[in-house]
Amino acid sequence: MGVRLMVVDDHRLLAEALASALKLRGHRVLAAAAPVAGAADLVISRAPEVCLLGTAAPAEPGIFDPVVKIKRERPQVAVLVLGPVPSPRGIAAAFAAGASGYVRHDERIEGVERAIMKARAGEAAVAPQLLQSAFGELLNPAVQPDDEGQRLLRMLTPREVEVLVRVAEGEDTRLIAAGMGIAPSTARTHVQRVLMKLGVGSRLEAAALAARTGLLDRAGPVRGTSSPEE
């Protein structure tokens, strides 16, 4: 029997893609909504069995406030956090807020589904390798941990960063071209160059990578920062 669930993520493309994949596997997805800021009220009003809540910054103060509110108003709702590889503090904060589990953004759909079933059953849903990684970091903290998002951001030009932001927001080539004041062929070239630099094969993979590494949050406001191209 399918699970009644909601998918909430700041990045609409990711939320809708995951919701569609779960629907195909027989689950009843009530909504795929963004942004996360309004997630708590929406989840409280719809009362799903499980809520998948996306975040790009699990260690940021207050990021799990929606989880606290959901569990206070709807304690029967199991909340699964979707995010990048977390720090020990990120995992601890998620569970302290009342989350039932933590799933990586790039987890396979089978892994997401297993976590959903565990959460609905009242079990903690977190991959053993995530716990091992977290404990390993606690025991052997890196002096200067590699910031993958910042590294990837340095690979892209300002124009390519804007293209990536628009891709993550679900814009197709026509909308990207119109929004940036460039020809569709130029927009298509920019998209292909972004995919090549990020080492991914599709727009969805690019959006997932950007969300997982926090690249979009580091990018800041980028629209209109460069002159139109032909």
Automatic annotation (TrEMBL):
<feature type="domain" description="HTH luxR-type">
    <location>
        <begin position="149"/>
        <end position="214"/>
    </location>
</feature>
<dbReference type="InterPro" id="IPR001789">
    <property type="entry name" value="Sig_transdc_resp-reg_receiver"/>
</dbReference>
<keyword id="KW-0805">Transcription regulation</keyword>
<dbReference type="InterPro" id="IPR011006">
    <property type="entry name" value="CheY-like_superfamily"/>
</dbReference>
<dbReference type="InterPro" id="IPR000792">
    <property type="entry name" value="Tscrpt_reg_LuxR_C"/>
</dbReference>
<feature type="domain" description="Response regulatory">
    <location>
        <begin position="4"/>
        <end position="120"/>
    </location>
</feature>
<dbReference type="Pfam" id="PF00196">
    <property type="entry name" value="GerE"/>
</dbReference>
<dbReference type="InterPro" id="IPR016032">
    <property type="entry name" value="Sig_transdc_resp-reg_C-effctor"/>
</dbReference>
<protein>
    <submittedName>
        <fullName>LuxR C-terminal-related transcriptional regulator</fullName>
    </submittedName>
</protein>
<keyword id="KW-0804">Transcription</keyword>
<keyword id="KW-0238">DNA-binding</keyword>
